[in-house]
Records
---
Amino acid sequence: LAKTTQPISMDSYEGQEVNITCSHNNIATNDYITWYQQFPSQGPRFIIQGYKTKVTNEVASLFIPADRKSSTLSLPRVSLSDTAVYYCLAFDDKIIFGKGTRLHILP
Amino acid sequence: NAGVTQTPKFQVLKTGQSMTLQCAQDMNHNSMYWYRQDPGMGLRLIYYSASEGTTDKGEVPNGYNVSRLNKREFSLRLESAAPSQTSVYFCASSEYQDYGYTFGSGTRLTVV
């Protein structure tokens, strides 16, 4: 069972780059790493997924080192609207969400 | 494009009552899931269905049953509601189990 560990909360300021790191020491060879964003009173929203190295889309970048025991979600130039909970998942046959990282963007 | 639709959005039950939460997706996804989220907590998987005709238990299946009615619909039933089942319930679907999920907007259930 791949289990992830990420910080409980983080604060940052508008315009900054935010990096959230997730540890997944027991990740299996075939597991992907996926990140979700959740706003209050809404369901989580898929942000990005990767297997190794670097993946980038219009919202974020995901960095995965060669050993794949951790990953870093990078949000460039955050705004107040990026205040949310961010979940890191490493695929298992029973998809497990942890408590996520509560990101608070300050003006 | 509706995505994942959950009904009802809100429900209040008395202890011991039963109800079924409905979920439907229009993306032709193979896999569907039910989660619950308690205040300040992450999501916990109740049941999932990897494909039409199959269902499996998640982390917290006790007190719940599910039915994968067809490829589109996956329902969650509470046979005898308890106050501990007060929560927000989310349904999700995905094309494959290892790919990004699409979530519904949730059902806020209160059991008194």
---
Amino acid sequence: DIVMTQSPDSLAVSLGERATINCKCSQSVFNSSKNKNYLNWYQQKAGQPPKLLIFWASTRESGVPDRFTGSGSGTDFTLTISSLQAEDVAVYYCQQYYTTPRTFGQGTKVEIK
Amino acid sequence: QVQLQQWGAGLLKPSETLSLTCAVYGGSFTNYYWSWIRQPPGKGLEWIGEINHSGSTTYNPSLKSRVTISVDTSKNQFSLKLSSVTAADTAVYYCARGLSGTMVRGVMNYWGQGTLVTVSS
């Protein structure tokens, strides 16, 4: 299985400031023949199912605000929230779909400082 | 608008079989992969497995011996059965839909509301 490790486990950011979450994969999720990284980012608010934010490591799902940006390649990825809003308080998960079983990071909790 | 509505028994005794169903409303049922994911209380997400409209399945090896995912295309529904449950299977179970296409079937953009299943004697 591909092990996904996120850092930090939690972070507190002031409103309007930048939040950065890292995700490291135990093996590359880059498919050279497709030139794609098979990595998603999800947002999960309390009591709700996860919501897809980013796929292909950097493609925003329809309707996702442009303050959410995904970057990285191979084994190291980053989700950046450029200007944290109150509604962004949530747990964020990375997930690989390079192979089965699909695996998730342990989650990063984002709070307001 | 695509909606996934799920249901099933919420309280089980050890050794019983968990059974959940997810109905899909709006959009096509074919050309997609349909997944089950679970989340123990206060913990992270675990992928259980997936199925397509033809009934082709892939399971998480950690659960494979106990899991069956099936599909009923006539009702636009798919189901999860997990046998011989223990307290470790206590979790919120979600159904979800992948994007259309084999390359993106692991990108889950529609989710059910979740069902809390508690295993307790």
